[in-house]
Structures are given as C-alpha cells and as structure tokens.
Amino acid sequence: MIKKLNVIKIEKKIKKKQNPTKEVFMRLLRNKSAMVGIVLFTIITMMSLFAPLMVDYYEDCIEQNLVDRFLPPSPEHWFGTDAFGRDIFARILYGGRISITLGMVSTGISMVIGGTLGVIAGYYGKKPDEIIMRIMDSIMAIPGIIFALAIVAALGPEIKNLIIAVLVMQIPSFARITKSAVIGVANAEYIEAAKTYAASPFRIILRYVLPNSLGPVIVHASMSVATMIMAMAGLSFIGMGVQPPTPEWGLMLSEAKEYIRYMPGMMYYPGAAIIITALSLNLFGDGLRDALDPKLKD
Amino acid sequence: MSNLLEIKDLHVVYKTREEHVFALNGIHLELQKGETLGIVGETGAGKTTIALAVMQLLARTAVITSGSIQYDSQELIGASQRELQKVRGRKIAMIFQDPMTSLNPTMTVGAQVEEMVRAHDLENLSDLEIDKKVRKIFKAVEIHHRRRKEFPHNFSGGMKQRVVIAMALACSPELIIADEPTTALDVTVQSQVLRLMNDLKVKLNTSMIMITHDLGIVAKSCDRVAIMYAGEIVETGKLEEVFDKSLAHHPYTTGLFKAIPDLYSKCDRLVPIQGVASDPTDLPDGCNFSLRCNQCMDICREVDPIVNSYGNLKIKCHYLEQEYKGGNCDEQSTNRNKKT
Amino acid sequence: MSKVLIETKKLKKYFKTPYGKLHAVDGIDLIIKEGTTLGIVGESGCGKSTLARTIIRLYKPTDGQIIFDGKDISKLSEPQLKETRKDMQMIFQDPYSSINPRMSVSQLIAEPIIINNIVQGKNNINQKVSQLMETVGLASRLKNAYPHELDGGRRQRIGVARALAVNPKFIICDEPVSALDVSIQAQILNLLMDLQKQFNLTYMFITHDMSVVKHISDEIMVMHLGECVEMAKTEKIFIKPIHPYSQALLSSIPVADLKMKDKPEIVLMGEITSPIEPMPGCRFRSRCQIGFACPGLDDNKLFEVESNHFVSCRNRVFNHYNISKKRQKTIVIRSAIINGAVSNIVIEGGKVRLIVNQETEFSKDLSMFEYEGRSVKYGELDELGRVLEHTVKSEICLNEEANLLVYQQNLLEGVFIKGQWFNSEQIQYKSAIEEQKKEFKTSQYY
Where in the sequence of chain C do the CATH 3.40.50.300 domains occur? Predict the structure, then answer.
C-alpha cells in the first residue's frame, strides 16, 4: 500500500550572521527559564540596591521596638515585625545587600585566583600542573564548612573574614574547571598557529585561550554565587557568620528558630529570599550553559 | 524487473530555530537488485541525508516535506517502528563514514558483531551456532577470529572499518548503503577495504549504494552513477556513459572531472569550478548551480530545469536542453548527442 | 644554481609514551632549494606532520640539525627564534580548527602583522590587511565576517593570507587542501602556485594525495614510519618508483578514468609495524609485496641509484644496478680505453664482481675475477688492454651513499662512485671528488 504523503510547505529562513558572543546572547534571551532567573535576580538585586530609598537602616532594621513585636503584615510593615519589633521587610532588603554583595565579591575573587591557577596549570602542564592541582586537592580534602568555620574561628567573625572563608572553599573548583576548559583549547591548531608567528604566551592566553574557554567558567561562577550565599547563610545560622544585630538572611533564620509558634513569618521570608535568590541564579546558570552549547539541548 | 529501491521526489528540510536547511530538493533514484549505484557529490550536497532518509534515521529536526521511499514495494516514510525494525539491518544495512566513532568503545568487537547476529536471528540459533557464524564473518573480512575479544581502540582505522563492514554483512542484507566508507582511511588501506567490499558484494549478490566524493572510487566499484549538487541529482547514468568525455554532460560533472589533478599528464594550472559551495539555507531561484555555472543563461536564474534524457543519461540542465533542442525520449541515438 | 634554503641532517623527533619512545621522525635528511617545492607524501602516522612541526620549531628536535638559510636553528631558544619565525610560516590542514573562532577575518590576518611589527599604525595595518585579502582572493566585504560564517575554501584563504603577512621566505603547507572539496582544492592549489611565482616562495608541501603532490612539487620525498624511503624529482617518482612502498602507494590511487580500471594494483596485506620502540631493520617488511624473498634486516639508509634519486631499499638498489647488466659488454669494450677506471660491476648470485681494465701504478693491487666470462691472469694482454690477476680475494660492499668500496685485507683499496674509480691515494685528496653537496668523508672508512 502506498501511503500518500502530504506535501508540507516550508519557507526560507537564513541565519543572521553575527559575532559568536552576540549569538550566545541571543540564544540566552530566547531561553524562558533563564529569562525568569535573570529577571528575578535583577528584581532582588535592584530592591536591595535601592533599599536606603525605601527604608531607613537604623530605624527599621536595628532599632528595637518592643511594643510592636510580632505584628502581622500590614501596609506599614509589609512582612510584619520580628521578635524585637524590627520591620522584617526592611531587614530582608538590607540582608540582601549583604548576602548578594558578599556572594558576588567572593565569587569574583575566587574566580580570579582559581582561574589564574587553572590557566597556568592547563596551559603549561607538567610540573606547574602537578603542583597546583595537588594544592587544590589538599584544600578540597577538608570539608568546606569546617574549613570556613576554622578560618572564622581563627580570624574572628568579621565580614571580611567571612568572605575569605567562603571563597577559599571555592578556589579549587574554579581552578579545576578553568584547567579543563583551557586544556580543551590549548591543543587547538590555532594556538599552534599563533606560536608560529611568535605570539607571546601572555597574548596567546589573553586573546586566544581565554575567550574560547571562559564559557564553563562563567556558568560555574553564576552557580557559585548561589552556593556562596547559602554557605554564608549557613555560617550565620550557626552563629559563626554575621553577628546580630546586622540583618542577614541566615541570621534571621537562626533568630526565627525560637519564635516559630508566635511568628512563623520570621522564618518564611528570609527562607524564601534565600531559595528564590539561589534558584534564580541556578536557572540563569543553566540557561547560560545551554546557550553556550546548543548541541546539548538537541 | 521492478526496482529494489525507488525514491520519488524526496524533499527534506532541517528545521531549526535559527535557520531552515533545504537538504534534499526533489530526489529521484532507482536501484535494481545486484546493482551498485554511486552517489557522487561534495560537502553539503545532501548525500548522507539520502542515506539516513532511506534508513529512516534522520535527526529530529528533519522534516520530510514530500516524496516517497519504497523498498521492495514497501513504503518506508511513515512506516511504524516495528516494520522499520524488520527492514533495518536485515534488509538494508548501513556503513557509516567514520569508523572511529561508529563502534561502541565499551564493547568488544566480537560482542558487537554477535549483537547484530542475534538481533536478526530468525531461526533461534544456539549459542554455539551463533559463535560459528561470528567466526565465519570475521574470516570473511580477513581478521583473525582470536581478535574478536579485543576492544575497538586496539584496532587501526582500516581494521575498524572492516569490523563495521562485518557488522553490516552479519545478516546478509539485500542492500548496503556505504556512506563514504573509506574517506577516513589511508589510500593503501582504502584499496584493501574496497577490494574486500567488492568481493563480498559479488559473493552475496548484494546491491549497494556507494556514497563518495571521489570519482576514482566510483570508477572502481560502481555500475551506475548519480551526480548530486545542492540536494538535487543533476545527472544519472551508466558508469561508462558518465565517464565518457565525448558525451555531453551537466556542467557540474564536467567541472568535477576537470578539477581533478591528472596523474598521468602534466598541466600547469588546474581548472577549478568558480564560486563556493551552495548554501542550503539560501538556494538561488531557478537552477541551484546557476551561481557557479560557466554556461549560465538568463533562464537558468529563473526557472528550475527539468530532467531530460540524452541517450541513457538523465540530466537536468537548461543549457543542454537548448543545445540539443530538448533532447528527450528514446528515439534519439547516442550518436546525435556526441559533441562535435 | 639557486641556493639551499633549508636543510635537515639526521633530524629526529621522539615522543615519550607509556609504552616507550615513539619514533615519529627518525633520521631525516632533506634539502630544499630556494624557490622550489618539496612534496612529502606518506600515509597517516608516517610522521610528516611531526616533521613539519619540528622544522618550524613548534617541537624541539630530539636530535639532528635544522639549517635554515645557513643558520642552525635546531637548538635555539624561543626568544632567539623570534627573528627566524618571520621567515618561516605554516599553513595548516584543518581550516576549521586552525583559526581562532572569536576573531574576525581582518583581526586574524592582522595578528602576525601586529605581533611582529611588520607595519605600524592602524591605517597601515588596515591597508596591509586589505592588500593581503586581495592577494589571496578574499572579498573585502568579508573583513568583519567571522570564520563560522565562511566555508572551508575561504577559511583556508585566511590561513594563506595569515602566513603571507610576515613576508616569509619558506612556507610549510601541511595538507592544506585535504579537508576541502575537489572543486575548491583546485582553486587553492592554483593560488599557492601563483604566490610561489610572485614572491619566489619555497614550499614544503605535505599531503597523502599523490595527484595533488604531483602537480605542485618539484621534488618528492616518500615517508614511511618516520623514515624517508624514496626521494627524487617528481617525474621520476611517478614514472619509475623504485621502493616497494612508493610503488604500492602509486598503484592504489583510485583514478577517475575507466581505461585504468584494470591496471594491476598492488594491494598491501598485513598490518603496519608500530612506531613505538620499533625493531631494527626495515619497517616496511610486514606489508612489503616482496614478501619472504627479502629478510628485511637492513636499517634505513638512502642509496643514490641515479642522479638525485635516492632509495632506501637495499633489495631494490641491487636489482637496479643489475639492470645495467645488459649493457655490460659494450661498457667493457669502451672502458678499455679509459685509464684507471673500473668499468663495470656485475651482480650475480649475491656476489659482486669488478671488471677492471687498466694499467696504472695501483692497478696491480686490484683483483680481477672475471672478464667476459673467463678468468684472466696478470700480464695477459688481449686486444682490449692488459688485465691483472690477484690471488687474494677482495671484499666489496656498498656504503651509505651507494658507492662500491673495495677492500683488500681490511685496507681500503678504492671506491667506485657512479662509474668512476678512485683509488685510496686519490681519496685523500678530497678535491678529486666533486659531488653536489656530497662530501666524501675519508675518516669513515679507516
């Protein structure tokens, strides 16, 4: 039996020719979940950024008002008040400033340090590779949180020590990811070609290796911010991070432990803030990975 | 005699979000039993797409917009997976281009050939009998059966390709589609593999479609030839006639022959085909070869030519049509078509 | 006579693998004269790409010398090489992986110019880039295009433009057209040949495709597993390949011509020997069509069978000399008039016999076995001149350069070089010997 196949009409569609970086950008824009992630994260960041315009730091976050304890959400206090009468919404906003800033700064620093180590290990190989990777292995051998705790305990619970503690945890993974990305590129023929016209190693790394290998690193960085934020919340939760009365999401969760019965909102809002921030960053990271390697999705 | 394989007016488009690739634009092919058909074309002509279409193994982004593929009077497009399972491997087998990637690196070669045999085992053979069959197959491809316990990475390229051929022949298929089987191999190994394929083909009376870009290979192994450009078959005919320089040919065919550096004579400059390979996302109106053709006329840019017969050659070209006053039908003798 | 631009002497490059040393390039001697093209042919794994990369100093040679324009560059460090790098460039095989995907066409071509300070200033650089694009046939509208938008042929043109940017003298083309379609191959080959004429470039052209190499090369070297097995002028290799591997290679090229369909084809059976810690002896013996007739125990040494035609198969070299057997009689008759020369060699039954006809001072120490089929004695004269007899057997052997040496009681008597006899005294005067760059080293033989 010969089945008659319907003739399907398909029109011409030609791919627009553009810069490879722009193409990745375009693909990212088309990815719905990634866009949701970016939008969410932008909203949270913007709100935290403009926090001083909306609420006053001392008045709303720090000053205790024992009369107004445990108030439910109202036009005056959007999320209600906590055990000390402080406005939860204000604390979330200011907490966001701390969390997000710390997350991005520590990611940035560990990306630079880990990335540089990874590039050296990947490009030069042999001895430098061995030395660097063994150092990274020894850092990774210690469980992250314990390592961070040790640093904070040794240096004191100040914010800058917190950053150091958290970023040291992340350096080895950046080093590894950068190294594997660089190795993938370092043996390419265009690198050999560059050597034949006497390009210096510095130029080769900067203009040839990095632009072609940064993809996985950036993806990892976006997810790393989420990890850092959660790590810091964790440290603050156990009291080894930010100290009261500074508003910080993890700390707020810790404080809310005792008052679950009276004011569950004290826990919901900071918890939700952490979840939404981490989720949006992860969605963005996923979308970025797909945009950089569309073959994976097919 | 009815054709073993018949492809009629096949159109395949790869639809992705960013572009639409018009891979096949109206393919007509016929293959008879015991015949070897060579499909010649350069990169992007659509040769692999034809092979995959016959096996119904096209990528998810491919859409068959029209046409029919009939194997032994059975329509393959739209057939159920079950029906296709019966055809694939047992009746039509495929040899892929790159032997390095067509073998599973985690299984021994013996296990892979055995898997083929078992999958198409209709008689429920015992283990011993299957083992005997595997040994026979290895002998046929000139690999010592002791090596069947080894993994693919221990084999050289030529040996891997022979294993792939062994797998294709495991079930004595009626038709073998070989997609550039020797492109990745050295020229001395290529001789070995081609000779082997020819021997086995003769012994088992298998029909074959040999897809290649190398006219030399076609000369050695094919009975009929089809020349492809930009998703269309521009010329078909018997081997002797396509290679006969005194007959009229499609300008692309002539160009291909001229562009090959000749081993036996000296000349100063090669004669390339001007322009670049066609862009399957942006095909010109009219004849697809118009942008590169020396003989391009105004009508070529507007109207797609139709296939005409010139003796036993089927060519689609406006220029030839004009030259031989629409040479069609079987009335005209080949003499009339010889170039003066 | 044009000068020699690049020369290698016993060039070796070994790689360390977990299984031992991989002999990628094992003792290659080559000479390329200015303005000519040397084609290097061989199959995958024979070491041609490694040879290219070693000569251009992407790798450091394990041993041997590379002499570029009179300077030995094999042991120089990177900073010392910077000047020389401007004179040698390379065009790579895969146009898809040899150019940086993140740079536009003009940026790619400008890179070598900027790094080597060929011209300075943005305007000058742009002008030079435009000039180069025009030279290689790239449309100027493609200046800001990216590689992934272009097809293989255009990308390879970028490679050519990039190589030309530094005004090199020598370009190594590592299979530049293998990844391209036939119709585009012809375009790029024509371009390369035009550029050679225009800029007096010297090429080393590597390929596995014999028809391409015939077209573009003046001389061809056939490589097998890191060694050179045959080297000669292009026409010679195609008309009369001597080494069994060259013969097999040539016969297995599929030709798009039905008349050649039934030409006898040498199909190599057997598997390739491994280049890792190879056994001494001939590396081709496992596949050679001569088969059991040849034990294959000889290491790779090039013999000059004819002027500028070198072969490394001892079996074939002896057979080659044997061809002159037919001319034996005439030569003997003619040579009787020549003073002080061994007139011919007869190779029979594995032994070599010298036929001497001569009457100078040293001749009485030479031995003579046969003359036209009969043994002759000292003092016996015939119409062709005096002949001599010697009771002590002489030893005869072939040296590296396919010259016959005659020893008597372990002392070198003399050497037979391409039809001329030189006795031991003459050998000491090097000036007696004039060969193209082939100096006869006496110390080797004592």
Answer: 4-87+168-239
